[in-house]
Amino acid sequence: MESIVAANMRSRPTRAMISILAVAIGVIMMLIIGGIVSGTLNDYLGRIVGVGADFMIQQSNASVFFALNTAALPQKLDQKIKEIPGVEAVAPVLSNFSTANFSLIFGIDLASYNELPGRLQIMDGRESLAGDEVIIDELYAKDHPELRPGSALTLLNHTFTVSGICRQNSVVRIFVPLKTLQQLNESSGKVTFMFIKAARGADVRGLGDALKRAFPGYLFRDANDMATLLAGARMPMYRQFRIAVVAISMLLSFMVVLVAMYSTIFERTREIGILKSMGASRRFIVGMILKETVIISGLGVLFGIGISLLARKAIVTAFPTLQVSMSLAEVMIACALGLIGSALGALYPAYKAARMDPVKALAYE
Length: 365
What we know:
The chain is of the alpha+beta class. 54% of the residues lie in helices and 18% in strands. The strands form two sheets. Strands 1, 3, 4, 5, 6, 7, 8, 9, 11 and 12 form a ten-stranded mixed sheet that branches.
């Protein structure tokens, strides 16, 4: 059987290559598009956890994706929260998404923010954030090599001066003074959310209950658990988008393999008739078709993984701020789905070939 399968692939190299390429494209779509979405999400939530806060307080209908929220939280709550026994630090934050820079900006009070374990760690420049100063992280600076301490950076139609460059473990990549961003947003006295840190030795769970009782109507999130943040995330159409990518990828593999194998059956009608007249069973015919499909899809999967790894490296090099997740589990899932889509595409052609009448097949012109 192996020689028959190999001979068929060698006799139709163009069709075999198109089928391999189609399976590879499906795998690439799942790994790269899905990897960008999941990588960006996981990186974002991981950096929130990296702040080291125990809680975040937000409006009741707010999302963990700060770009989707408005400045609706009274800043004066920070003083009332500090009065709760067990609270060590409170850092109010105003978020704003800049479409021009395609970046999420945090307006913070540097002194209160640096009371958190995940304080800004300055690598270059000064630890200063006042007036029209801005601090950027090292990946944003790498993506914009013209920016150095003392450089001008235009954000929200306002010119800032880069005072320092911090490590990349910060939640966002751009920080400006809270009061300055409030003035630009015309949201004086308002913030988007606040980070809350429990005092050392405090009962964190008890403190969470106390905060909820003291401030009913507000949303408190555990900020130190990535799984909890992900479970509470309301990202519009995220699940549907991932399903659509997988469905399109599998459909591509399915359709191309189906057409390729079905046309192969017609071209090899006489060959199949000869095999059946010589005693080849239906199982043998089906196995021959499926084995060819497995070889084609296997080569397509390997090719797709190789291209995906190269593409991931190229994307991360060209766009340092963009994260592409490609774990072993994600690679295995993409491989399995590519193989399944190809196998499903070969089922009907294999069934058609197995039920072929040898007498009619031999008479086929």
